Amino acid sequence: MKSRRGNGAFSLTSRSVALVGTVLLCMMMQSALAAETAATLYKQCRDKPSTAEQRDCYPAAVRQSEIELASAEKKVRADMVELEKISQGSRAMHPVRAFDQAERAFRTFRDAESNRALASYGSGNGGGLAVFETIIEMNIARANLLTGEAGTR
After folding, report:
1. Distance (Å, rounded) from C-alpha 151 to C-alpha 140?
2. Structure confidence at residue 32 (pLDDT)
3. What is the reported pLDDT for 108?
4. Helix, strand, coil shares of the chain as percentages rounded to 5?
5. Cα 121 to Cα 117: distance, rounded to the nearest angstrom
6. Rounded to an integer, what distance in angstroms lies between the CA atom of residue 134 and that of residue 116?
7. Who is most buried in 19, 37, 40, 116, counting CB within 10 A?
8. How far is CA 2 from CA 9, 12, 14, 136, 146, in A?
9. Buried b / exposed e across 88-100, counting CB within 10 Å, b at 16+?
10. Could you tell me the pTM of the whole model?
11. Which residues contact 133 (CB under 8 A, 6 or more apart)?
């Protein structure tokens, strides 16, 4: 008579190995995707031969530009928190509050610019693509500005 426990343990081991393999594969794929910068993705999207292909491509570039922007903002804000802690003169200027206000103002301006780009197309095709392009270009520019600014301190 065969033991069910032995078969169950083997099945569990096989499932565990498969699960570990799947997790590792997903992690490798995420790393590969993360290696693409927003600027690279944006260029790839712009080089697509049709607007339909561009429309399908741009959301990934927008997401990556948002990730890069959020990362740059997080770093600069952490620097502002540190500056506020160690510098009496800076503390009086409220660098964290100033950064938070600038962050909100940037997003408000970006949204207004996106709406302007959309409106400039009237009822014609291409307005949605113009919105994607505006968001990506502004996010990349702001992230680059913040990254360069953080590097000088």
Report:
1. 16
2. 46
3. 98
4. 85, 0, 15
5. 7
6. 10
7. 37
8. 13, 17, 19, 62, 66
9. eeeeeeebbeebe
10. 0.73
11. 42, 46, 58, 117
Tokens of 141: 């520019």
What single letter denotes the amino acid at residue 124? G
d(CA 109, CA 114): 8
As a whole number of Å, the CA-based R_g of the chain is: 23
First-to-last CA distance in the chain? 74
Residue 106: name the closest of 135, 63, 84, 76 by CA. Answer: 135
The pair of structure tokens assigned to 60 is: 């990934």
112: Cβ contacts below 8 Å, ≥ 6 apart: none
